[in-house]
Sequence to fold (325 residues):
Amino acid sequence: MDKIELLQATIARRPTPHMPIALWRHWPIEDQSAEALAGATLAFQREFDFDFIKVTPSQTFVAEDLGLSGVYDGNPEGDLVKGPPPIRSLEQWEALQPLSPTTGALARQLRCLDLIAAGAGATPFIQTIFNPLTVARCLAGPQATIWRRRHPEVFQRGFATIIETWSNFVAAVMRTGAAGIFFSTADASYQLMAEEEYRRWGRPSDLAVVEPSQAGWLNVLHVHGEELMFDLVADYPFQVLNWHDRKAGPSLREGAQRFAGAVAGGLAQWDTLLSGTPEQVTREVHDAIAQTEGRGAIIAAGCVTPIPVPATNMRAAIAAARAPR
Fold:
């Protein structure tokens, strides 16, 4: 099987000769340039030959064109220290206008995807998209939550422009030849909001933004954090579901029972990939395969791979995943 055949069989939960695997990371310096990010992403892929490429832009690109900045201070995960939120008043929020994907940071990211499409060969690639509630917090910080609760009608007017911007951007992503998107929500968590809030604000906006991605075949939903509203998002129209299975739960086995497509996970990025031995990495991959009976699972970390993870540990994961069965 080639990579596409392997992934499509995994999504359909058909038998495969081995497990697909993909790891991804932040590029907190290179991501300021389309050429540098594409180059770093493709070099990483050439070194490890994962079964798909997840393109990870700057964490500030969602609001960069409205004034959000970030500085890298050496965080091992690649997180940026963000500057002050650019939207500071309800009047500014209400005056928000949709951004065009043909200019600024969004155009830069599409240029990056064009370069990756030209260099990836037969390896499918997907673009990271953050859910609209996350974008709202990047724009207005904690005030976004306050305005949403105290002034819902005014909040909705600004929120609608976020939904329009990112729906249009997803459509543009699909025109680059991407196989799908990697859609990240950190809000489907009982630590952040009640289920009723997410039903009103999160779910409808999520589904509106991802609708253009249905032209693709490899859409990955990433549910970030702990105390997850797992079942509330498990019926989203995605082929793959990724979450912190080792840290937050549910387990891969249980997740596969509650989601119709493929599950992605099995590796604890901090405890095992970063701090463990190659033997521990191998055991964790074998456990993930056992949990899913060798079908319908992609070996992956629960989130981004920390920058200092040893190459030997990544190679151990790849070898364990690709061992013939």
